Amino acid sequence: MATYKNLIVWQKSMNLIKEIYKLCNNFPENEIYGLTSQIKRSAISIPSNIAEGRGRNSKKEFIHFLQIALGSTYELQTQIEIAKMLNFQGEYTKIDNLLTEIEKMLNSLISNRKDNV
């Protein structure tokens, strides 16, 4: 039986978390309870909502949680842009690419599920 762990979008979002934690290690210490905390929570929210939605017993609920994960993706993209604007040091290319890929995958998954409801 397929689980949320088999979803490529979940796997990629787990990889994103690793990259986010590496990035946040470069941020100023005074941001530990500010932007750093927000960024980590947004990143963690993506695979968490995918997993929770997959564990639900209906396609409608799965779609709902995929939409929440997508919202967290947009939130994280905004927070990364803020970090760049504030000139926080770090490697953003891999994160930007993963976020774009995850966003597209979530949109596709949502669209495909809506067609089958």
What does this structure look like?
The longest helix has 27 residues. Helix 1 runs antiparallel to helix 4 and helix 2 packs antiparallel against helix 3. The protein has one domain: 23S rRNA-intervening sequence (de novo design (two linked rop proteins), Up-down Bundle). The protein is elongated, with a radius of gyration of 15 Å. The chain contains 4 helices and no strands. It has 117 residues and is an all-alpha fold.
How helical, in percent, are the residues?
over 70%
In terms of DSSP E residues, the strand content is: under 5%
Work out the count of structural domains: 1
> Main beta sheet: strand number and arrangement?
none
Brief digest:
This protein has four helices and no strands. With 117 residues, the chain is mostly helical. The protein has one domain (19-115): de novo design (two linked rop proteins) (Up-down Bundle), CATH 1.20.1440.60.
Q: What keyword list fits this structure?
A:
de novo design (two linked rop proteins); 117 residues; mainly alpha
Topology:
Elements: H1 8-24, H2 35-54, H3 59-85, H4 93-115
Helix pairs in contact: 1-2, 1-4, 2-3, 3-4
